[in-house]
Design goal:
Blueprint: E1 12-16, H1 21-32, E2 36-41, H2 44-57, E3 62-67, H3 73-86, E4 92-95, H4 113-128, H5 130-136, E5 140-144, H6 167-188, E6 195-200, H7 207-212, H8 219-223, H9 230-242, E7 252-255, E8 258-259, H10 269-282
Parallel strand pairs: 1-2, 1-4, 2-3, 4-5, 5-6, 6-7
Antiparallel strand pairs: 7-8
Helix pairs in contact: 1-9, 3-4, 4-6, 6-10
Length: 293
């Protein structure tokens, strides 16, 4: 693919949700380009297996494992501190981790699980890693969203779906929040050399797709006949993390390694800034951690 990738030797990239699926293939793709890849996930055993899998296919891979349950803001803060302690410069942050919860679950922070993991965790992690990102020179933030953002709406009076819970509606809300966050983040980074973009990875045969359709996770095996595998879903993430063609491009939504239009709903600046303010409160950002306009 023209302009697909640049050499990432001596670059450090963090991928969340890297133990399986699109996250694993994104990490593998970045390792193939020579990057030092930091694999973040909530299960040490699965992360170690992912690390070994990548090492088998990319013999020169330089890999590190970071364990963190992104449902916990304390764990997100610990992850950011560990990454920043080990790496003064972070060239790429891929906020890939995502879940679907069929029943409403509340985190230890008192937040609805999908909104907490899919939106608030990357929102907080990005803020906490801004220092090593800014120090890297031309760092890139890549947020994995979804085309289902077009089906989402932000219920500012009830972002936690307390009054009524529908798993797919909550997922679509969180993916819409990913896009809104990216657009506002791009504006707030305009005076820096850090860029932020989001993407739709496509419908890919993973357990997450099975959950979205309300099927048993074993359905993902059957879905491989109809849908491409995780490697296809990782292509645009790797492209945004590495391609010279998007150097300096920020605040855009991509699909198949090309810009695409997002939904019209909630894409006004005032709604995006309102979501930003709500998110700041929910993750309890300190004044020093906040990004200014």
């Amino acid at each position: 693919m023209q302009g697909m990738a640049a050499d990432l030797v001596d670059r450090t990239c963090l991928v969340t949700g890297a133990s399986s699926g699109i996250g694993l293939e994104t990490a593998r793709g970045l390792a193939r380009l020579g990057a030092r890849v930091l694999l973040a996930g909530r299960d040490r055993r699965r992360l170690d297996a992912a690390k070994a899998d990548i090492a088998r296919t990319v013999r020169t891979a330089e890999l590190e494992v970071f364990v963190a349950d992104l449902a916990s803001q304390q764990a997100v803060r610990r992850l950011a501190a560990e990454v920043a302690d080990r790496h003064a410069r972070l060239h790429v942050l891929v906020n890939n981790a995502g879940i679907i919860a069929r029943s409403r679950t509340v985190t230890e922070d008192g937040l609805e699980l999908q909104f907490a993991v899919n939106h608030l965790a990357p929102f907080l992690l990005t803020h906490l890693l801004m220092r090593p990102l800014a120090a890297a020179g031309g760092a890139r933030i890549v947020n994995v969203a979804s085309a289902v953002e077009a089906l989402g709406r932000i219920d500012f009076a009830d972002v936690g779906s307390e009054s009524a819970y529908d798993a797919n509606a909550a997922y679509c809300q969180s993916k819409l929040a990913n896009v809104m966050f990216t657009y506002e983040l791009g504006r707030r980074l305009e005076s820096t050399d850090v860029t932020a973009n989001c993407l739709h990875p496509g419908a890919v045969a993973t357990g997450l797709l099975a959950e979205y359709f309300g099927r048993h996770r074993a359905w993902a095996t059957v879905a491989r006949v109809k849908y491409p595998g995780p490697a296809a879903g990782a292509r645009t993430s790797v492209y945004l993390a590495s391609s010279p063609a998007v150097a300096g491009v920020s605040g855009r939504f991509f699909e198949d390694c090309a810009p695409r239009a997002s939904s019209v709903a909630f894409m006004d600046v005032s709604s995006q800034r309102r979501l930003w303010a709500v998110s700041e409160q929910l993750v309890r950002l300190t004044p020093e951690e906040r990004l200014r306009t």
